[in-house]
Design a protein that fits this description.
CATH topology of the largest domain: Ubiquitin-like (UB roll)
CATH superfamily of the largest domain: Beta-grasp domain
Helix content: 25-40%
Order of helices and strands: EEHEEEHHHHH
Number of domains: 2
Radius of gyration: 15 Å
CATH architecture of the largest domain: Roll
Length: 152
């Protein structure tokens, strides 16, 4: 099976019902995408498929159509994505476990809503759980990233 992940083609020999999460982590060694709940409720496993935030723990790899972007492909250590940079600036992470999913969800959200209100941010980001409760910092980081992406 051919997959385009982070702008690179990968050939994997797996069953089509294997969750994309396990293909990324176990077959390709991309461990930035985290396993959280396994039932698509917490958001730790969020990746982009054609720019849309998807829960990779419940997405069978055989149903993946198009390009996949993981946290490893969102930015680079030298050129962070605006959301990643804002996360660092606002010191969002505490334990850090949910952060790759939070960042991926925020990036997809901002691609659709470049000038969000606090309420829109809260609603969009409430689908991702943070056990440390850094939601106020998440909101501020999303607002900062939105301004940067708009060039404001």
């Amino acid at each position: 099976m051919q997959l385009k992940i982070n702008d690179q083609q990968h050939e994997v020999s797996v069953e089509p019902d294997m969750p994309l999460l396990w293909v990324l982590r176990d077959e390709l060694g991309m461990t930035g995408t985290k396993y959280g709940c396994g039932i698509a409720q917490c958001g730790a496993c969020t990746v982009h498929v054609n720019g849309v935030a998807m829960r990779s723990c419940s997405l069978p790899v055989g149903q993946v159509q198009g390009a996949v972007t993981t946290i490893e492909g969102l930015g680079t250590p030298k050129t962070l994505h605006a959301v990643q940079s804002a996360w660092v600036q606002h010191q969002v992470a505490q334990c850090g476990y949910c952060q790759s999913g939070q960042i991926m969800s925020a990036a997809a959200f901002l691609a659709l809503q470049p000038s969000p209100s606090d309420q829109q941010i809260d609603e969009a980001m409430s689908a991702n759980l943070c056990r440390c409760g850094t939601y106020p910092r998440i909101r501020e980081a999303v607002k900062t990233a939105a301004r940067r992406l708009r060039g404001a």
